[in-house]
Fold this sequence. Notes:
The chain is mainly α. It has a single domain (45-196), classed as Protein Binding, DinI Protein, Chain A (2-Layer Sandwich), CATH 3.30.910. It is built from 5 helices and 2 strands; from the N terminus they run αβαααβα.
Amino acid sequence: MKNILLGVNVLLIIAVAVLYLLHFSGNETSGNARTGDIPTSAETRVAYFNMDSLLGNYAQSRELNEAFLKRREAERTELNYKLKLWTRAGEEFQRKVDNNGFLTRERANQEYAELMLKKEELEKMEQEIREITLREQVEINRKLYDVIFAFLTEYNKEKGYSMILSTTLGGNVFYAEPGLDITRDVIDKLNARHAGK
């Protein structure tokens, strides 16, 4: 479950990053420059970090996700308990029907309607849990994205990279010189900053 949520986190952060970059990067072109021409020089510096490692080792990410999982687990436990009670009530209803335990058909129909109403409430509760889960996951991802983006902006003032990329396992960076990977440095500095708060 944690791996699935971590994977979803990574995908959402990457999607938000791409949308952010697309939204805020201008298409300014100078007189002779064609769209897509990128000036390069010997001073162009590129670095990357592994988002999977960052999210897995960044203390704030772990804290947010652990709290998120605890809330979801508590809600899921409550829902499962209510589903078991509903199932037992349904079994009891069926037993009464099989043993002619209702004095009137009207009473049987009334109890059946109550069971169906309870089932609808449980389905609604399950849907609300899914919606809350998605909203909270998006909020966590947005918070982490904002923190990482702000950190990298400040981090890059000292480092002077032309571009900092993020990658994931199986992502777009298949090979890079070891010196271009800034993952450990970013994790260490983010954790130090988080611990200082």
